[in-house]
Each structure stands twice: as C-alpha cells, then as structure tokens.
Amino acid sequence: MNPATTAPVAVRAPLLEDFSLEMTAKDGPRLEEARALVPAGTRVNVTFLGNEDLELRLAAARTVKRLGFVPVPHVSARRLESREELEKLLAGLRADGTGDHLLVVGGDPATPHGPYEDALAVLRTGLLAEYGVRHVEVAGYPEGHPAIEERTLWSALADKRAALTGQGLTTGVITQFGFDVDPVLAWIERIREQGVLIPVRVGVPGPAGARRLVAYAARFGVGTSASIARKYGFSLTNLMGTAGPDRFLHALAERYDAGRHGDVKVHFYTFGGLRATSEWIAAFRP
User: Is the dihedral of CA 249, 253, 20, 189 positive or negative?
Assistant: First the structure.
C-alpha cells in the first residue's frame, strides 16, 4: 500500500496548501507532462545552473507562466559574470512578464565568476526593484552550510531582509532540504524569536532513489546519520530503494505550531523527478 494515500486528511491538508516545486531550465517538457497534477497558480522555481544559458532560463520561465503557474526564476550571484549579465536576465524576465518573483542565492562556485560574491551583493545593487521585481526569496540553512560559518549565515539573513525591506520588496525564505524535522523547527523558532516573521518554505526532497538523496545531502551539508536515515524512511546500508517524504511531512505537521512557527509552507526539490514528485503530492493531498 502506498503510505502517501493513507495519510489522515487533517495532517495533509494545511501543510500542502500553496506548496512550491523546483525545476531546471531544461525541465519544461516534464512540467508540461505533470501539468494536470499540479494546481493552477503553483509557484515553480527555475534553477540557475552553470550548464544552462540565459535564453534557456528565460524560455523555462515563459513555459511555467504559459502552463498557468507562477515562475520563480533563480539568480545565482557567484555565477554572474557581470552587471550586464544580471541586467539582461532581469530585462528579459520583465519583458516576458515572468520576473515578479525571484529567488536570489549565492550559488555553488567557490570563487565568484564576476562582481557578486554573494546574494546580498546582488540585492544591494537596487536593480531588482528597478526591473519590476516585487518579491524575493532567500536561502535558509537549518543545518548550516558546509562552506559558511553559522554566525555569518545569521547576519546575512538579517542583512538580506533589511536590504529588501528598504527597497519596498517583500521577502520569504526557502530552506535547504533535510531528513530531520528537529533542526528545521528549531531554526524556525530561533528566527521567530529574533523578530524575523517572514514566510518560510521548508525544503523537502521529492521521492527519489535513496542513493541520489544521500549524494545531494553530502553536497549540501545535510545530515544523514543512520538514525536520521531510519527516521526518514531509508537505510544507509541499503540504498537501492526509493524514499518519499511521508514521515518527514507527518512529523512536521504534527509538531508545527502556528503561534511559535508562523507562516510555514513546503517547497519540493524534485532532483529531476518532477512528474514523480507531482504524482506523489497528488496522492498525498486530500
């Protein structure tokens, strides 16, 4: 029996209202295949990978919009080679009507390809508001970042919020994905205690092969101890199966408290399995 179809409605419904998905710029055909499974108006993030060019990213955002969803293009600060490249991206998005919402991240390269060393440097240009962007999401790291000190992450989050608020832009946070609810909720409580009341989208891995999940976890500094893996639903000694986020979402829903945690939604990292993730969500939702 598929455990997704046995989840109590009381647990499923609130958590999966207004969920968001992630795709690469090459995933347009996969999104089209999954269209009937995804509610109209769903936010679909379009990643900013090094092997995809400007035209491919713009075309992907147009596809998201054409299919009735809300495009959320990514801007990877350290992948940008110049201010001109950033302006070309923003101008293209504005022309297509796909640039209202963005996610701005530092990006994978250890050394910047151009003038922007991190997401904050992009935000401080003032170009986003100038090109009609209205809402900007930034990254959150409940389990830390393998290359950034914790105190730096906390100060950066405060600085990003201040920069965006000062430009009249609304903001939210999308967290790294994880297998353990405990650090996620603890991190959300901590930012609420510090007066950060912006919406948080909790990153969740869509159903995927356990080996792939572990590989991505290692890349992004996500904890995968044996006890965490068992809690999530797979074993580090047997990576042949497929794991879905059922247990994680149940635990998150059962322990979520609106008074302590505020506005919390779910963001699915699809890892190339956009249709599989969409099918899983359709089964899990009431």
Answer: negative
User: How far apart (Å, rounded) are the C-alpha atoms in residues 8 and 6?
Assistant: 6
What's the whole-model pTM score? 0.90
5 Cβ contact list (under 8 Å, min separation 6): 283, 284
How much is the pLDDT for 220? 66
* pLDDT per residue as tens digits for the range 252-266: 988 999 999 999 999
The values of phi and psi at residue 121, to 5°, are -65, -35
Q: Are 16 and 284 in contact (CB under 8 A)?
A: yes
pLDDT at residue 168 tops 50: yes
Q: Strand, helix or coil at 103?
A: strand
Q: What does the mean pLDDT of the chain come to?
A: 88
pLDDT score, position 221: 63
Q: What tokens appear for 177 in the block?
A: 């994905």
Lowest mean pLDDT among 54-63, 67-76, 181-190, 275-284: 275-284
- What's the angle, vertex CA 137, arms to CA 146 and CA 110, rounded to 5? 30
Q: Tokens 């009507």 belong to which residue? A: 97
Residue 218: pLDDT band by 50, 70, 90 thresholds? low
CA angle centred on 274, ends 262 and 245, rounded to 5°: 50
C-alpha span between 89 and 70 (Å, rounded): 17
Distance CA 265, CA 258 (A): 11
Hunting for tokens 């530092």 — which residue is that? 106
Reference 98, options 120, 68, 141; nearest CA is 68
Asked if residue 214 has pLDDT above 60, the reply is yes
> Helices in the chain by DSSP H: which ranges?
9-15, 28-34, 54-66, 83-96, 119-123, 127-130, 150-166, 181-193, 210-220, 226-232, 246-255, 258-261, 274-284
